[in-house]
Amino acid sequence: MKEIVTAIFDIGKTNKKIVLFNEDFKIVSEIEQKFAETNDDDGFECDDIEHIESWIKESLSLLVHSDKFDLKAINFTTYGATIVYLDETGKRLTPVYNYLKPMDEMIPEHLYKRYGGRDEFCRRTASPALGMLNSGLQILWLKSVKPEVFAKVKHILHFPQYLSYTLTGKICSEHTSIGCHTALWDFDDMRYHQWVENYGLDLPQPVSVATLNEVMIDGKKLQVGVGIHDSSSSLAPYFSSSKGKFILLSTGTWCINMNPFNTEILTVDQLDRDCLCYMSISRQPVKSSRLFLGHLHESALKHITDHFRKPDNYYKKIKADRKWSSSLREKFKDSHVFFQTDGYLHALKNYIDMYEFSTYEEAYHQLMNELCDLTIASVKLVLPENDNTENLYITGGFSKNDLFIDHISEAFPAKLVYTSEIVNASSLGAALVISGTNSELNLGLTRCN
After folding, report:
1. Residue 2: φ, ψ to 5°
2. Which of the four, 139, 221, 284, 315, has the lowest number of CB atoms within 10 Å?
3. Strands 391-396 and 416-420
4. What range defines the domain where residue 51 resides?
């Protein structure tokens, strides 16, 4: 008897995956692909959308005819800040432009001036001024730089909805993709910002992330979701199964701190300190802050490993020693050995005096003292004045770092701190939102304090 499955296409910047979940939300298959990037019409690198589309259709055809699996539903979760333009016949007009592509800073200036100035516009849209990372500003960029192409644009879709569209032909949007620093959504009024209408943009009204459309693929009837932004998708399992209010620290190259229970309006000061809002699956703002944690760790660690001539992964053997951390705090007080701070920006110092330390272990404890101080300050940015979150979940690479866990636990003694090991959290979230169930999941929690 075939096993009933839901297929999730999880499209990251580096890796593309198709993950199959059974009816108990257990992973029964995972296939990962890496596609070489191509160049857009300006010569800037971008995802090869034609290759991705072909892979999706070929994968689905194989699944439909599988002797092992009975495919019932499909959904998509992708990185954000990426949009696709269609003409009146529904044909894609452009490459899928890379959100790292440079944008002339003058392009959004008239928008800022017209709607209260840069600070007010960014506050109201919960979107730090990030150039092409503000996907709404990509529309202005296309209109300014390629007016002959823009004149042909009939429909504008975010990336998850475009991939869904390739199967369903349905033009739609949903809140999680619009709400991720796009400069399109007015978080004060919880609707598209007035500039969208004033500039004559006919954007689709958002529908629920649970929306399904029926399609026929190779003679098989299937249900297809409208797609979801990956950061919001990764929160979905915690909404389903968390006992109480929570903050999620998703660690890796970036440490993204998300608080779905902070209802305070984003301030200009928070925007300046790299805060923003995502939108949850329940259409509520998710106040978030971020820190370039993994990058800073990797950059500083190289100095330590080179100086003490240790293997690159030697730090993984080090256990937390609170006495050592405390003595180093007393020694260096408020000064930093590894990092310099320019306002709210943090970078490696041009000169690091490694002779301050007698051992690798001592140097690494000081590095984690400094990194954890930065992380704690970043987490506090998403805490409201009257904070009543009970749980703090840590996922990703630093959830396995004893020093990191020890510092975070010590900094938030009133919260229950857990590490959480959910494999493919964004894929799981995308499966959950179209399932129509409220299944309680195993979050893989380990209590830390």
Report:
1. -70, 150
2. 221
3. parallel
4. 3-226
